[in-house]
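Observation: inputs received (chain + coenzyme A).
Thought: call the complex predictor directly.
Action: predict_structure
Action Input:
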Amino acid sequence: MTTTNVETEPKKPTGLAGVIAGKSSVGFIDGKVGILRYFGYDIHELAEHSSFEETVYLLWNGDLPSPPDLADFTTSLASQRPVAPQILDFIAAAPAGVTPMGLLRTAVSALGQYDPDAEEMSIAANRRKAGRLTAQLATLVAAIHRARDNLQAVAPDPALGHAANFLYMLRGERADSTTTRALDVALVLHADHGFNASTFSAKVTAATLSDLHSAVTSATGTLKGPLHGGANQRVREMLDDIGTPERVEEWVDAKLEAKQKIMGFGHRVYKVEDPRARHLRDHARALQGDQDAGATDLIAVSQRLVEVMAERKGLAVNVDFWSASLYSYLGVAPDLFPMVFALSRISGWTTHVMEQYADNKLIRPRAEYIGPDARAYVPVADRD
Ligand code: COA
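Observation:
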């Protein structure tokens, strides 16, 4: 027999689905018709015209920058990319087999130890830390990628924009404009998405008045999970497992029969196609060209999956679906995909944390108790 100790509605949402958990001015999402806006700007316009730097400025300031403001902001962000050499050494010495996202989470936490404002909680200090974290995360991700092949980290080039510099640090050579633009657009599209799981975990940490690095560390750990940032990696593994468009129907039917989820489909908020998906698809197609990212024709298999899932489940793709092909054609290994997501979402995390600090209230919900009724304690010696 159990006791319930919270007065509740008869039917409660699971996983806080549909629950309004706070106010925010950052992003507007209408999941029924597929609208996403950052501070009122439609994601489609941002995907076509904006850059990651301009989007980050928008998120942190609530408005688009003037040309000189954007130039200053871009220069400032670029100047903050270097990380403490001890952290690069730590990455290089990571044990074999450690997951890239696990390493990133720990490295993000370590950044706090070297940050001059680590425990400073003023608005100005948090802005400085947000800038450093956003700039430095790219350096960490590229270093983690290279360390796996026993390659030295490439020092950032302050003359390059955020996307171009990341690709340079990743590959050790400059990328062409089509490739750079594809990544830049992916970064714009992933920058913010309301109270998604990782952003919400950052808010919960910040709401205790813990520091920004701690909040971003929580968020990185949350993004690591396969139901959130890890889904893009699972999509690529699925595409490889299916192999050819002709196998899609049979493969999907077997998974659905076994009550398994098809990665890259479905969304807690969107009931139609995720508005970010088509931009990722178009850039993935542009990048595909003659590239052979392995034996699988990723685009052809993906396209067939979209058709079959619409027929079978009426489900549309989410942001992770086409990201998998796009990141593959950028030359990123599948287990590094969630880190590319983090590269962008750091801007949303820091925005929401600063919004939380500006009007803070501890986030502490209650649980509905479903455990045993009160019972007498039996000393260990008297137990059977
Ligand atoms: N494949 C197959 N069926 C799916 C599905 C998927 N990817 N996503 C949702 N469904 C089905 C569920 O089986 C369920 O059907 P039912 O009512 O007949 O049982 C229904 O749609 C609702 O799914 P549910 O898991 O309750 O929705 P949710 O809001 O809790 O989950 C996700 C949202 C994103 C976690 C879920 O869609 C999912 O696991 N997708 C795959 C992972 C993924 O791509 N994650 C990235 C998210 S951006």
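Thought: report the result.
Final Answer: The chain has two domains: 27-31+39-227+334-358, 231-329. Residues 203 and 338 are 20 Å apart (CA to CA).
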